[in-house]
Amino acid sequence: MGRMTHQQVKHLYWRAGFGITNKELKRVAKRGRAHLVRRLLKPGEVAQLQLRSEEFVKDEIPPEKLNPSRIRQRQKQYLNFDWLTEIISSDNVLTEKMALFWHGHFACNIGNTYYQQDLVNTIRNNALGNFDTLLRAISKSPAMMQFLNTGQNQKEHPNENFARELLELFTLGIGNYTEEDIKEVAKAFTGWKTNRDGDFFINKKQHDNSQKTFKGVTGNLDGDGIIDIILEQRETSIFICRKIFKSFVNEQVDDRLVGLMADVFRRDYNISELMEFVFMSDWFYSNHNIGCNIKSPIELIVGLSRSFKVQYTSKDGLLRAQKALNQTLFYPPNVAGWPGGKAWIDNSTLAYRLRLPSLILNNGSLDWEDPDGDEDTFLESDPSRSNLFSSTDWDFFKKDVKKLPRTEIPGLLLQSNPLAIENNAYAFNETDSLEEFTLAILCLPEYQTC
After folding, report:
1. How does residue 426 score in pLDDT terms, banded at 50, 70 and 90?
2. Contact in structure between 26 and 314 (CB atoms under 8 Å)
């Protein structure tokens, strides 16, 4: 549990955050593993995201397109921009990293921007807290209740949408429940409502008070009672830990290690304790777990932006970049969220991913046609707005690597250093400027993994 190698520290800071600078690497590498993990887990104040006002967004919408739907869409796009730029600047890197995980786990895409704001703040406030608390808060949030039609679920006319996704995607996973379980769970959640302000309440007249049976328990079960039973099932902790293993350890799952994680998690569903167990374990730092995961588009954008202190003055470029790479915050493809892993890479996204460092660091123009054909409903179709609107602090990076030999810069930016590989296929011109040399490294396939 003593000092870690630089590669191990980088591994920890990429998986628990979005990379690390050379200055910070030298400073924290002197500390032991326990100190670094506790430092990452130390709770910090989470800045609450505030929705931009209708008056603010009206100014940039053409008069002929000004309508309530377009206003809400603009507010949602600014919510995306504000969260992403907060992640880039935040010191609470593990909190935001876990929030991104839960954002995909509890995927939700609705037009009500006030509900979306409430949902993301709920996730961020509980990202490293207790899964029990988080699950109940999400289940009663107006965003998820609207998305999965919980408010339409009432006695004599049960709606099974929320019940199905609760069991399949949020807790137990496929194969650990039956169709009869879905019917019984749906009856237990009848009467769950929100008022006009989005406040949760139970309409007792619409609740089914009949006897229900779920996982061997029979009684007049309600929604909270169902969640109690779900959390008692070992399959729940295994399902959650399996997803966390794929995101934070290795996309190739080791069932034995997932079992160890599940044992820790099931004690009281403390998310921080689970992540501490993972980051403190020797197996987390095994060579086969280092540099093996493909960065998500958000990880790619945030990692670049933090390493070079990139600042963005407009939401449009970041939105285009996210959509081109198939991960736009608040716009999951479906209720299952983003598939992740190798699904991040295809013929269309690979070219953009390899060009992204040059585009961001040089405030390039994202020449891209929307494959879905709905560009006008996502962003205004104005070629002059296609730039990323970014400014890069190259002096910050130059100062950070000032005393670092040029041959060691790849080792800082990549988990595998191509210059250290015998007979490497990469050739760098020694006369290149530091900017040109650095961009060449960032555009290597190795930068796509962490």
Report:
1. low
2. no
